[in-house]
Amino acid sequence: MKVSYQWLAEYVDVSGYSASEIAEKLTRSGVEVDVVEKLNKGITNVVVGYVKTCEKHPNADKLSLCTVDVGQEEDLQIICGAKNIAAGQKVPVAVPGAVLPGNFKIKKAKLRGVESYGMICSAKELGMNDRMLPKEIQEGILVLPAETNVGEDILEVLGLNDEVLELELTPNRSDCLSMVGTAYEIGAILGREIKLPETEVNSSDKIASTKISVKNVSPEHCHHYSARYIEEVSIEPSPLWMQNRLMAAGIRPINNIVDITNYVMLEYGQPLHAFDADQLNDGHIEVRLANKNEKMITLDNEERTLDELMLLITDGTKPVAIAGVMGGANSEVQVQTKNILLESAKFSGSSVRITSKKLGLRSESSLRFEKEVNPENVTVALNRAAALLSQYANGKVADGIVEELSTQNPATNIQISLQKINDYLGTDLTKQDALNVFDRLQFSYTEMDENTVIVHVPTRRGDITRDVDLIEEVARLHGYDHIPTSLMVGATTPGSLSKDQKIRRAIRRILTDEGLYETVNYSFTHPSQIKRFPGMYAQTKQISLAMPMSEDRSTLRTSLVPHLLDVASYNKNRNQSDVRIFEIGNVFLTEEQSLSSQPEEKELLSILLTGNRAAANWSVQENNVDFYDLKGHIETLFEAIGISNLQFVSASPEGFHPGRTASIQIKTDDKVIVLGSLGQLHPSIQQEKDLDEVYILEIMLEEVYQLANFDIQYTTLPKYPAIGRDIAVVVDRSLQIGEIVDSIKETAKELLESVQVFDIYTGEKVESNKKSVALSLVYRHLERTLTDEEVTELHGKVVEKIEKSFQAQLRK
């Protein structure tokens, strides 16, 4: 927001303070001023001149010899090379001795044998931003309005004796996106009164409701729509002072109608739009959402394709504006326009934001609507603009406002205590100190008792909704420099990591040591991602964001896997097919259909493997990762963090391959804890993502933190030899091998040192519904040497138990 110092002075008394001092006070109070720009780029002795005569130079076809009255005793003879110079014009004249931007000094000169006493200036030569002016003016000298006084200082005429403060506003301070809003802020800082613009309208005997009508069929997106009817307007340039202020704010002047709407927008922060009323169907306005693929041509002569989320202003038969963003070419104010429908409204900020982003259109109007305009200014700004149209466009304002109001916007009432203010700020302010701040802000209040007040916050300060917001206002206006400093007091303890933090760091270290890369993804996802892969929490309800950054980031995630798949796809599309990644992050769960409390958060670990196990070279062939690579990673991890009794049980969770997936379980003394799942991604999702075979794992970390044990346990090296035995049995193909291993451990008890599966065979030498499982068993006694007879007897019991329990056949 660019704020003219002289314009600001019309609303609040800034006498005694320079523009730089005002900027310093604004910045110290929390509204940062990025730069203070002087519009005078070094001009002296440039005045308004009247071109009495303009003739061709006797010795040059492209030069003109002019006689110019500059308000002095004698007229000046000036040679000018501009194409648009003509007699009867009033122009800026740099007289001899004048200085122009760049320290360019004007002296008497002789051009082609003829003397010239000064220089007739263009806007660019005066240091102005000539891009704000019409093209014909950019290319020639600056022609001033006919009513400009000859001899007047050009700095006063063009407003170049002004300074502009450029505010860097945070999103919560949209109240300062207007001159009046900034004046309120300066008034609060300096403790001075605010003088608001005149908004009284002199109405004609015509009744507005007989000329125009308004219908709002989308009240949830348009909270207030009001319109006035102004007839018999004259389209002409706006007053020079208004053009100067618009240009200082970075807005190009167009004509008096458009300039007045822009001027009031800058003044009140309330965007307005003027329609050619004669181009509307019976002067009717209807506010509605667009139809799918509906089209319209906007003021920039671009055809826009709309969708059902975009709010339109129509005349009941055709769209005439995109609400809050840009008007339509079919109702544009033109030279022949005579009657105007003037619009002022409060559109939903989220609706305007979505529309502006989708269309790639961002304007001063949409910027303000996106941040929610002050609802109290809708009617005030409308009346202010109508009064200016009456004054500077000779318009006749019809009596009355035609409007539809769907939402009331009362002041926010906040109860706050002096004790809380002082506790938060570490101050000893009195109650009157706090009330003085509220008075300066022009916040009314009701005193409840000696310690408590209820503050009535006006709608122009929509950023203040809680008592802590009021405390912030007290802090910044009392002055951060006046808040006493104090040392922190409290017991100090040596810092250390919690058990959860230690385990989390260990997981990251172990997995990265094994060649995996950690990813960090958004906690937000698209709703379809949740439906496609719900993960372990398929029964949870979706949690939608109130103000999502985009549709792809509109829902809180319930699984980490979808984003890992996106990372894998992203890498494959860039010829990186070998992906080994993991993520530790939170998912968000709720059983409520309509969320009324904070969702539950669960911390998960997810791993994804796809592509080759290792890069191919002369000694290693390409070999794709498989289920057992993933299983090996989790076994290595759990062994490192002290978790034993890990089991893998066949399972078919949603999103996984139904025949290549296992449930990860931990068997304790009294129960079995299910941690998650690992296996191959379901082929349909794999095909949709255009990926090779993908293996994924997802486990809950809460139980891992509880089960992990970093205590190191030492055991002596065995003194006595071990005896090994191998066994191969034929069992049903559906039998889980883990059941055989558990049976062996239960039978052999403490004499069994280890059992290892070293072969599984399902070929032609066994029946089609059978499989051969070969296991290697190691027996050892810790206190003596086992005899061959003891091992043979024990091994026989193991084989017998397997045969009886699983109808196994011993292979010879």
Automatic annotation (TrEMBL):
Residue stretches making up the FDX-ACB domain: 718-811
GO cellular component: phenylalanine-tRNA ligase complex
Cofactor note: Binds 2 magnesium ions per tetramer.
Catalysed reactions, semicolon-separated: tRNA(Phe) + L-phenylalanine + ATP = L-phenylalanyl-tRNA(Phe) + AMP + diphosphate + H(+)
Keyword terms, alphabetized: Aminoacyl-tRNA synthetase, ATP-binding, Cytoplasm, Ligase, Magnesium, Metal-binding, Nucleotide-binding, Protein biosynthesis, RNA-binding, tRNA-binding
Family matches, as InterPro entries: aa-tRNA-synth_II/BPL/LPL (IPR045864), B3/B4_tRNA-bd (IPR005146), DNA-bd_dom_put_sf (IPR009061), Fdx_antiC-bd (IPR005121), Fdx_antiC-bd_sf (IPR036690), NA-bd_OB-fold (IPR012340), Phe-tRNA-ligase_IIc_bsu (IPR045060), Phe-tRNA-ligase_IIc_bsu_bact (IPR004532)
Names of the cofactor(s): Mg(2+)
Locations listed in the record: Cytoplasm
Coiled-coil regions, chain positions: none
Record: residues binding Mg(2+): 463, 469, 472-473
UniProt domain TRNA-binding: residue ranges: 40-155
Keyword check for Flavoprotein: no
Chief location bin: cytoplasm
Pfam assignment, any one: FDX-ACB
Gene Ontology molecular-function annotations: ATP binding; catalytic activity, acting on a protein; magnesium ion binding; phenylalanine-tRNA ligase activity; transferase activity; tRNA binding
The keyword Transport belongs to this UniProt entry's keyword annotation: no
Signal peptide start and end residues: none
Gene Ontology biological-process entries: phenylalanyl-tRNA aminoacylation
Enzyme superclass (EC): ligase
Family note: Belongs to the phenylalanyl-tRNA synthetase beta subunit family. Type 1 subfamily.
Subunit structure: Tetramer of two alpha and two beta subunits.
NCBIfam families: pheT_bact, YtpR
Name of the featured protein: Phenylalanine--tRNA ligase beta subunit
